[in-house]
């Protein structure tokens, strides 16, 4: 795909070549993310970081990614403090804010809202999550992480087995990730969820039409032993009609050290887009796995910075100018010692 000036709204816009391009640029971002050196390639540029739904990692990493390329960030959080609460349309908001920014990252609780917003925008818009629909940048960082983690075991993505667990109905990360995986060969999917929270039919159809193998089950233990990747998700309580309804599923699937050791291969990679719900009633991914070498959750979050830096560089057309605007880091940085 042609990145410069383009919106990134859905993983369906991508193909394997464009994913490779993103990953190659993401790898070039490592020394800047580690503060070994700086680049001011986007000095003077402004990111409009519009988050109309709660977020920690995605919002902050979009902002930091832009800062690490030398740009400035202007942030809006929460619907109540924006004119959307006065009835302003997404189109009007986009027309105005796109004059103030060079690129916009946006999260919104409604499916397809970011696309609607992008129609009014004069600058590239990157989808940071649109309701239960898609989360393309998370899926890219997940795929990037899977690729790196499996390469340590001498494996590639083709032929791998992934178990996706939890709220597969409302969890947008698994919708987007499944579609990226569909572009590869011979993937085995084990989809583990309560039947009420099953993967939407349209995602299942995409997986089947691409010729991959699917097992659908409500049982966690006993269905993990072949998985190379175990991808856990949170019950998306904010998308349920009521808290009571969400509570029915909280804590239904839990992974801890004991279950992992008994039911998984010794090197199954444990992933979660985060936040993990660590309240006692949920505790979907126990702290007793925190120092396990196969726990990749924080490496996923680290990779998010690289992927988002790559997307900004590509959509603004500066991916080949990083070195030209390099300068040294003149403060003490522990990251560079890693
Ligand atoms: C996810 C999201 O917002 O969809 N979080 C994230 O962006 N890393 C998953 C979640 O909230 O459960």
TrEMBL record:
Residues 158-314 form the Aspartate/ornithine carbamoyltransferase Asp/Orn-binding domain. Keywords: Pyrimidine biosynthesis, Transferase. It catalyses: carbamoyl phosphate + L-aspartate = N-carbamoyl-L-aspartate + phosphate + H(+). SUPFAM superfamilies: Aspartate/ornithine carbamoyltransferase. Its EC number is 2.1.3.2. Signal peptide: none annotated. The keyword Transferase applies. NCBIfam families: asp_carb_tr, PRK00856.1, PRK08192.1. This is Aspartate carbamoyltransferase. It comes from Shewanella ulleungensis. The gene is pyrB.
């Amino acid at each position: 795909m042609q990145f410069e000036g383009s919106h990134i709204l859905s993983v369906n816009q991508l193909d394997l070549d464009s994913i490779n391009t993103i990953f190659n640029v993401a790898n070039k971002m490592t020394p800047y993310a580690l503060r070994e050196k700086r680049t001011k390639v986007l000095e003077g540029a402004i990111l409009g970081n519009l988050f109309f739904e709660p977020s920690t990692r995605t919002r902050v990493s979009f902002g930091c990614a832009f800062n690490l390329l030398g740009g400035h960030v202007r942030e809006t959080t929460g619907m109540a403090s924006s004119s959307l609460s006065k009835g302003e349309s997404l189109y009007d908001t986009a027309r105005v804010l796109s004059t103030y920014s060079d690129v916009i990252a946006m999260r919104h609780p409604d499916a397809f809202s970011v696309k609607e917003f992008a129609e009014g925008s004069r600058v590239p818009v990157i989808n940071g999550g649109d309701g239960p629909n898609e989360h393309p940048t998370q899926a890219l960082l997940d795929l990037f992480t899977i690729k790196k983690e499996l390469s340590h075991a001498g494996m590639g993505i083709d032929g791998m087995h992934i178990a996706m667990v939890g709220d597969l109905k409302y969890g947008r990360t698994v919708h987007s990730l499944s579609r990226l995986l569909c572009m590869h060969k011979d993937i085995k999917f084990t989809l583990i969820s309560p039947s009420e929270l099953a993967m939407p039919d349209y995602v299942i159809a995409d997986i089947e039409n691409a010729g991959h193998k699917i097992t659908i089950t409500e049982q966690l233990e006993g269905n993990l032993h072949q998985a190379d990747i175990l991808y856990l998700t949170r019950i998306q309580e904010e998308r349920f009609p009521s808290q009571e309804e969400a509570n029915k599923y909280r804590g239904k699937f839990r992974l801890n050290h004991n279950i992992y050791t008994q039911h998984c291969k010794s090197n199954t990679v444990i992933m979660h887009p985060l936040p993990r719900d660590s309240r006692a009633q949920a505790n979907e991914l126990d702290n007793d796995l925190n120092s396990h070498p196969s726990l990749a959750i924080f490496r996923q979050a680290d990779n998010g910075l690289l992927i988002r830096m790559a997307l900004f560089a590509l959509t603004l057309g500066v991916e080949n100018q990083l070195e030209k605007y390099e300068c040294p880091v003149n403060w003490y940085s522990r990251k560079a010692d890693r």
